[in-house]
Amino acid sequence: MATFLAFLALALLTGACYFIYRRSMASTEATDENDLQRFMVANRELHLQRIDHALWDTAMQIANGDEGVARARYIELRVKQMKSEAAVEAAR
């Protein structure tokens, strides 16, 4: 009986690890090879204060006025914006 319970616990642990692995791989597969470049561009824009003010306002609202959180949200929003712009260009 103890062997069965140990095997069952091991099977559940393996299943949980596999589930976590698949979820992390799904988010990795959703990004393309240009994402790193986009993150670097967005970070540089933020550093040089050449920001999209509408996106910055949105980021500040999401962050409830916390500038540190808003910086991270701005970069995420800017990367999404650059991805959509690239998709429009690719569709032409």
Topology (elements, then pairings):
Layout: H1 2-29, H2 35-47, H3 53-62, H4 67-91
Helix pairs in contact: 2-4, 3-4
Structure notes:
- It is a single chain.
- With 92 residues, the protein is an all-alpha fold.
- It is 83% helix and 0% strand.
- It has helices at 2-29, 35-47, 53-62, 67-91.
- It is built from four helices and no strands.
- The longest helix is centred in the first third of the chain and has 28 residues, at 2-29.
- Helix 3 (53-62) packs across helix 4 (67-91).
Shape field: extended
On the 0 to 100 scale, the average pLDDT is 79
Low-confidence stretches: none
The count of helical stretches stands at 4
- How many E strands? 0
Radius of gyration: 20 Å
Helix content: over 70%
What structural class do you assign from the helix and strand content?
Answer: mainly alpha
Oligomeric organization of the protein chains: single chain
Measured by DSSP, the beta-strand proportion falls in under 5%
Sketch the major β-sheet: none
Helix/strand order, N-terminal first = HHHH
- What is the end-to-end distance? 65 Å
